[in-house]
């Protein structure tokens, strides 16, 4: 996908343990068949130094919106890939999408245990992007760790996830589930109550999210 490297400028937070860089790409697809053909070209990524994994799929809410999640060992490895190999791999998807947004996040901690960028055992991913009031950023991160994470980790069907931090301050919560039905039960039963306990409204200036139907052919 051409331009995967754009979209973020300004202060970047210091890396957290593991220094894993998470890349989230969202775009509106105008040529679905061409886009999917091009997506398979990214199968060449495993030969890139520092590459950890990539996967994605289609929005359940807007069938023309695609999400892709990529994982790199460090910003240095990622920058090297962008300078050397990216444009060659991206060429196959030129003209198949519009309105691309790219954001980069540093992995801060796992949701559940031992996050790995694997997609084969998951049917859906939930992505939540939060722009947080600057004076509430540490409280928001603490509530994610102490309130939201245990609730998600204890939910049947939740496989693994991560909490990432970007400039802004912005945060990404990515979780993988073995079915949309299990994720739906978690939302219906717990989200409102947990939000009150975590004082989410006081922390968050803006929040967007999506449920992504994972395409196994995109997993690298």
Q: Helix and strand layout, with pairings?
A:
Elements (H helix, E strand, L loop, with lengths): L20 E9 L2 H8 L11 E9 L5 E8 L2 H10 L1 H5 L6 E15 L12 E9 L4 H17 L4 E9 L3 E8 L2 H19 L1 H4 E11 L6
Antiparallel strand pairs: 1-3, 1-4, 2-3, 2-8, 4-6, 5-7, 5-8, 6-7
Helix pairs in contact: 4-5
List the keywords.
single chain, 220 residues, alpha+beta, Alpha-Beta Plaits, eight-stranded antiparallel barrel, 35% strand, globular, disordered N terminus, DUF4937
Structure description:
The chain has a single domain (17-218), classed as Alpha-Beta Plaits (2-Layer Sandwich). It has 6 helices and 8 strands. The protein has helices spanning 32-39, 75-84, 86-90, 137-153, 180-198, 200-203; strands at residues 21-29, 51-59, 65-72, 97-111, 124-132, 158-166, 170-177, 204-214. An 8-stranded antiparallel barrel has the order 1-3-2-8-5-7-6-4. The two termini are 14 Å apart. 37% of the residues are buried. Residues 2-18 have low confidence and may be disordered.
Give a brief outline of the structure:
The chain contains 6 helices and 8 strands.
Termini separation = 14 Å
Q: Give the strand tally.
A: 8
- Would you identify the regions where 5 or more consecutive residues have pLDDT less than 50? 2-18
Specify the overall morphology: globular
User: Based on helices, strands and strand pairing, what is the structural class?
Assistant: alpha+beta
Helix fraction, binned, reads 25-40%
N-to-C series of helices and strands: EHEEHHEEHEEHHE
Portion in beta strands: 35-45%
InterPro entries: Dimeric_a/b-barrel, DUF4937
Pfam families: DUF4937
Protein name: DUF4937 domain-containing protein
Organism: Streptomyces laurentii
């Amino acid at each position: 996908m051409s331009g995967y490297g754009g979209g973020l400028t300004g202060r970047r937070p210091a890396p957290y343990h593991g220094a894993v860089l998470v890349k989230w790409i969202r775009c509106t697809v105008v040529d679905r068949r061409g886009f999917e053909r091009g997506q398979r070209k990214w199968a060449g990524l495993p030969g890139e130094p520092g590459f950890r994994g990539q996967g994605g799929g289609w929005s359940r809410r807007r069938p023309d919106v695609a999400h892709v999640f990529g994982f790199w060992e460090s910003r240095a490895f990622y920058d090297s890939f962008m300078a050397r190999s990216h444009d060659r791999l991206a060429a196959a998807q030129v003209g198949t999408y519009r309105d691309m947004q790219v954001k980069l996040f540093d992995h801060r901690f796992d949701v559940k245990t031992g996050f790995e960028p694997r997609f084969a055992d998951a049917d859906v991913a939930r992505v939540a992007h939060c722009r947080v009031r600057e004076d509430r950023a540490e409280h928001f991160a603490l509530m994610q760790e102490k309130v939201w994470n245990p609730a998600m980790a204890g939910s049947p069907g939740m496989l693994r996830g991560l909490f990432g931090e970007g400039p802004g301050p912005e945060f990404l919560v990515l979780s993988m589930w073995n079915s949309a039905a299990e994720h739906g039960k978690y939302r219906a039963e717990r989200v409102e109550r947990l939000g009150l306990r975590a004082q989410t409204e006081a922390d968050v200036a803006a929040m967007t999210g999506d449920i992504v139907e994972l395409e196994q052919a995109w997993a690298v």
